[in-house]
Amino acid sequence: TTRCMMQAVYFCSGMDSDFHHYGLASPIYTHFTSPIRRYADIIVHRLLAVAIGTDTTYPDLTDKHKLAELCKNLNFRHKMAQYAQRASIAFHTQLFFKNKGEVSEEAYILFVRKNAIVVLIPKYGLEGTVFF
């Protein structure tokens, strides 16, 4: 269900009107977490250090065009990681069922389409389309 929501993206903004966060109803917002997991978190920490004058190691971070390119690359890599995660889940789900033989489980119809139905199999947390 979270795929229906608007995906978060990184961007370089110079206008206060762009700083809001709709979901949190906050007039000003920045992504700020511990910089041990993701490169985007490291960049935010570096930007803050540059902004308060405690670090001059990364002068390119003050270049709006270079920062915009960096954001574009971060967004692309995040999207590719999501695709890889979905593909991995699909692959391992297939491996799980490969040697099980025929499986019969209760399913719920979520949508009826002209040429298919979308079903949910709660036992396995699977949702899929059955074409006919």
TrEMBL record:
Superkingdom assignment: Eukaryota
GO annotation, cellular component aspect: cytoplasmic exosome (RNase complex); nuclear exosome (RNase complex)
RNB domain residues: 2-51
One example of a Gene Ontology biological process annotation: rRNA catabolic process
Primary subcellular site in the record, as a coarse category: nucleus
GO molecular function: 3'-5'-RNA exonuclease activity; endonuclease activity; RNA binding
UniProt entry keywords in alphabetical sequence: Exosome, Nucleus, rRNA processing
Family annotation (PROSITE patterns): RIBONUCLEASE_II (PS01175)
Location(s), subcellular: Nucleus
The protein's name in its UniProt record: Uncharacterized protein
Biological source species: Micrurus paraensis
